Amino acid sequence: MERKPRRPTRVVEVGWVKIGGGHPVVVQSMTSTDTRDVSSTVAQIRELEEEGCEVIRVAVPDEAAAQALREIIPQIGIPLIADIHFDWRLAVAALKSGAHGLRINPGNIKGRENVRRVIEAARRAGACVRIGVNAGSLEKDLLKKYGWPRPEALVESALRWLDFIVGDLGYENVKVSLKSSDVWHTVAAYREFSRRSDFPVHLGVTEAGGLLPGTVKSALALGILLSEGIGDTLRVSLTAPPVEEVRVAWEILKATGVRRRGVEIVACPTCGRCEIDLIGLYQEVERRLRGLKAPIKVAVMGCVVNGPGEAREADVGLAGGKGVGLIFRRGRIVRKVREEELLSAFLEEVERFLAEREKE
Ligand code: SF4
């Protein structure tokens, strides 16, 4: 099955990052620190940047958090989005502190007049506004109309707010999310919205769960949507440290072929032919290459019989054997080393490969 081309959407701007209109799908995450604790928040954002986070969202639950943004923003290298619930004044304060974007659920800002105030402040600041529709906090009249937060209800809520913000207020630096904790409702909502609007969408499955179930749910929903060309930015929501969200987001983008960054590892599942500690070796390779930003595909294979052949597409690979190991490039064996030198020889070969490619 071929991945479909990206759906054409409008371009919006979160600070200096462009979203939509064929620009690369942007990876976002959200801090888990208390925003008022400036040093912890900055440290976490820097860690996330290093891992490949391109836009960060922070909770702004009170005035002190809004003020803390003044100190946080100058110390980070990616645009910041303030997450606002209920109080329009906090949105205005966050924008005055330099936030590059807002995430609001207009339904809980209570009243069109307050949403208008938020939009006017965003217009003055040139900030992007995400209309974050959420199955858990849908407007009462839509719940009544549809009986439960059906995908159609999420879409109607998003279109209604777009109509007000874009149609009535004339503000277009807007993107949309339609989140549900159910994979199929999420997929259906984004599909339907994308059929009816060309505003860029922020993908995510809300409250997806811990690292394993959350990764599976997110990979399923986001994988389907990305393969259909839907999605301009995304966040994987996990009950886990946010750095894991960024890692999983990149793995989804790499697996769908939407973007490339850093290492992609092909590894055999091991079988009765394997005579080395392949799982330990794999973990070490993953740890040592984690910081790489340049894209490279490597293979970690259990045996010399099938390893190189099975991993022909990898740029550099290793295959274990009895007392010896092989290093290969694109399936061609280039070195034979003693088993205890296998890891270091492999890492040398990766460095050599990257240096040579740089020169090309
Ligand atoms: Fe088994 Fe070798 Fe294939 Fe790994 S590469 S699964 S050890 S045959």
TrEMBL record:
Where, by residue number, does [4Fe-4S] cluster bind? 268, 271, 303, 310
The protein's superkingdom reads: Bacteria
Task: Report the pathway entry.
Answer: Isoprenoid biosynthesis; isopentenyl diphosphate biosynthesis via DXP pathway; isopentenyl diphosphate from 1-deoxy-D-xylulose 5-phosphate: step 5/6
Give the E.C. number(s).
1.17.7.3
Identify the residues that the record assigns to the IspG C-terminal domain, covering every copy: 264-351
Has keyword Iron?
yes
Task: Enumerate the InterPro entries for this protein.
Answer: Dihydropteroate_synth-like_sf, IspG_bac, IspG_bac-typ, IspG_C, IspG_TIM, NO2/SO3_Rdtase_4Fe4S_sf
Ordered alphabetically, the record's keywords are: 4Fe-4S, Iron, Iron-sulfur, Isoprene biosynthesis, Metal-binding, Oxidoreductase
One GO BP? isopentenyl diphosphate biosynthetic process, methylerythritol 4-phosphate pathway
The record places domain IspG TIM-barrel at: 9-250
In the record's cofactor note, how is the cofactor described as bound?
Binds 1 [4Fe-4S] cluster.
The Swiss-Prot or TrEMBL record annotates one GO molecular function as:
iron ion binding
Could you say which enzyme class this protein belongs to? oxidoreductase
Q: Which reaction does it catalyse?
A: (2E)-4-hydroxy-3-methylbut-2-enyl diphosphate + oxidized [flavodoxin] + H2O + 2 H(+) = 2-C-methyl-D-erythritol 2,4-cyclic diphosphate + reduced [flavodoxin]
- Cofactor list: [4Fe-4S] cluster
**HAMAP family (alphabetical):** IspG
Query: Its function?
Result: Converts 2C-methyl-D-erythritol 2,4-cyclodiphosphate (ME-2,4cPP) into 1-hydroxy-2-methyl-2-(E)-butenyl 4-diphosphate.
Name this protein carries in UniProt: 4-hydroxy-3-methylbut-2-en-1-yl diphosphate synthase (flavodoxin)
The gene for this chain is ispG
